[in-house]
Structure formats: structure tokens, C-alpha cells
Design brief:
With 318 residues, the chain is an alpha/beta fold. It has twelve helices and twelve strands. It is 34% helix and 14% strand. The two termini are 25 Å apart.
């Protein structure tokens, strides 16, 4: 019987496909295993299931002498040294299907919330000084009729575009490769260079994968290209943005606002961001609903069964 080590406590409803066929170990008394605990346990296991915040590196893979599969609990895989896994003959999988709609949904929620200042109003209305009820004071910016620039027009980017089009927005996008014409027509989307996107978008959403090539792809130069009325949304990965440059752009009104779900050093958030009223912050919550997290568990477990038994499609990264 293959042995599966899950680093994070997951609900059993999402793991039923493994019942009776695989020996599962996961935290029972706490939310997650520490790195030290994983290093101690891993030599006994065939499969490791890290979540998006657990970094699986050379040391863990070298200790995992029986390890053949890393079934990631997340669509992004920058938490895994995929290159080294490939050298070791370890297959890495991710879960792109069940993460698509909830992440796009949350990105659009951040877009609306940051544009219409929902978080700001909620915070201020609860304080003794309150919030201005004046006709023009502390106003937001409209979404209808505005241009959304999507950097990374994959599954999540396209699902975000669908929501934006339904709200009366125009879509421009930048991608590693241009999409097929029939896909562009679905969203009336126009392919542009990154520079053109940054200069012409009212809203900019980062939805590309985190890779060495996309590391800090948005920095001081890019923020200075944006409109002073631009709203920046990031539900991709925090290391794709220079956070100091972003905090400076928000503080100095180089851009108008931001909505963030990811950070470079999660769960720690740069203190400067916490002090700003024009940024809407969330704790990597793009898929954080009970239904979605259980669905993610199912997809992750099906990758394991598919890998060993061939009964499900396997979403391989390498």
C-alpha cells in the first residue's frame, strides 16, 4: 500500500478516493506539520502533498528516498523545486481545474472592492469619527465601461475576463503566447504588449504563473507606466511584484489603489501596506470556501490515483 504524507490538515470528505488503497498521514491535532516533522517523516512515504505555502526543496526530496510523486495542493507550484524534482525522477502535479473559478471570482471581488472602496468604508464607518457621507468626499472609481488589462490569460485570466465583460468592461491582455482568434472573440479581447497594457488599462490584474522569468515582473518602472487612476489586482503570487515599489506607488498616488491576495513573504505582510487606506488586503483566500477546498482535495487525490492506477487524468507539471 502506497503511503501518502499530507502536510496540511484536510477534511476527509475530499480524500475518499484514497480510502482503503493508500495509507494517509496528515496532522490531526494542529493545522500543519512543521518542516522538521516533514523531514523526519518523509523517508517512509511514496507521495508528498504540500500546500501552496509549504516549500518542498532539495533537502526534503533527498530525504524522501521512496518519494515518487509530489501532488501539490494548489495551482501554482513555485513552492516546489520542480527542476530538482525532475532530476530526481519525481513527478509533480497541480490542480488547475478546481482553482479556476474561485480564484477568478475572488480577483473580481478585489477589483470591485478596491475600486468602490468597500474595505475603506467598512473600516471607517465602524470608528468614532466615522466616514464622510458627503456627495463627493472619499469617492471610488467606476468599473462599467473601463478597460481591464489581464497579464496572464490562462484559465483563471479567461474566467476573470468573462466576469469583467458581463460588467461592461473592455479586455486587453498580455500573455506568453497569443490566444487563438476564437478565444479572443469570446471576450472581445485584444492582445497587446505588456507596456501598452500598463499604459492603457484602468484596472490591471496579474494572473500569470510564478516562474524565474516572472519574478518581480511588476516593479517601479511598471508602476510608473500605469495611469494615476489605475487599480492593481494580484491573485497570482507575491514574488512577481516588487512590494516596496508597490507600497511607494500607492503611498505617493502613482496608482490609485490595489487589491491583494498574495504577498512575497506570506503570511507576513509588509507593514507599509497595512498602513495604507487605498489597498484592499486578503489572506491568500482566493479559493477559501469550504466547497472549493474540498473540491481541490478531490482533484489532488485524483492526481495520486491517476498516477498509480491510470483511472483519472493527471495534471503533470514536469
Amino acid at each position: 500500500m502506497k503511503k501518502v504524507l499530507i502536510t496540511y490538515r484536510l477534511k476527509p470528505e475530499g480524500l475518499t478516493v484514497l480510502d482503503g488503497k493508500y495509507e494517509i498521514t496528515l496532522p490531526k491535532e494542529k493545522s500543519f506539520f512543521s518542516r522538521e516533522e516533514v523531514l523526519e517523516l518523509i523517508p517512509q512515504y511514496d507521495v508528498l502533498v504540500p500546500n501552496f505555502s509549504f516549500y518542498t526543496d532539495k533537502e526534503i526530496m533527498d530525504r524522501g528516498t521512496q518519494l515518487r510523486l509530489i501532488s501539490n495542493f494548489g495551482v501554482g507550484f513555485n513552492n516546489i523545486d520542480v527542476e530538482y524534482a525532475t532530476k530526481k525522477g519525481i513527478v509533480v502535479t497541480n490542480i488547475p481545474n478546481t482553482t479556476r473559478e474561485p480564484t477568478a471570482e475572488f480577483a473580481f471581488a478585489l477589483l470591485l472592492g478596491a475600486a468602490r472602496r468597500v474595505g475603506y468604508y467598512d473600516r471607517k464607518i465602524r470608528t468614532p469619527e466615522g466616514v464622510s457621507w458627503g456627495t463627493y468626499a472619499d469617492g471610488g472609481v467606476p468599473v462599467y465601461g473601463k478597460t481591464l488589462g489581464i497579464i496572464g490569460m490562462g484559465r483563471i485570466g479567461q474566467s476573470l475576463a468573462r466576469r469583467a465583460v458581463a460588467s461592461g468592461m473592455q479586455i486587453i491582455y498580455n500573455n506568453r503566447n497569443r490566444l487563438a482568434e476564437e478565444i479572443e472573440k469570446q471576450y472581445n479581447a485584444r492582445y497587446v504588449s505588456k507596456e501598452e497594457l500598463l499604459r492603457n488599462s484602468d484596472f490591471i490584474s496579474l494572473n500569470a504563473p510564478s516562474t524565474p522569468e516572472t519574478f518581480r515582473m511588476i516593479g517601479e518602472r511598471e508602476f510608473n507606466m500605469m495611469k494615476p487612476t489605475a487599480v492593481f489586482i494580484n491573485t497570482a503570487r507575491g514574488d512577481m511584484v516588487d512590494e516596496k515599489a508597490m507600497a511607494k506607488a500607492l503611498k505617493e498616488n502613482i496608482i490609485w489603489a490595489a487589491g491583494l491576495d498574495v504577498y512575497e513573504n506570506e503570511p507576513h505582510i509588509m507593514p507599509e501596506l497595512l498602513e495604507l487606506d487605498n489597498v484592499l488586503l486578503a489572506p491568500h483566500a482566493g479559493t477559501k470556501t469550504l466547497e472549493d477546498r474540498i473540491a481541490m482535495s478531490v482533484e489532488m487525490a485524483q492526481n495520486i490515483v491517476g498516477f498509480y492506477e491510470g483511472t483519472y487524468p493527471v495534471s503533470r507539471v514536469n
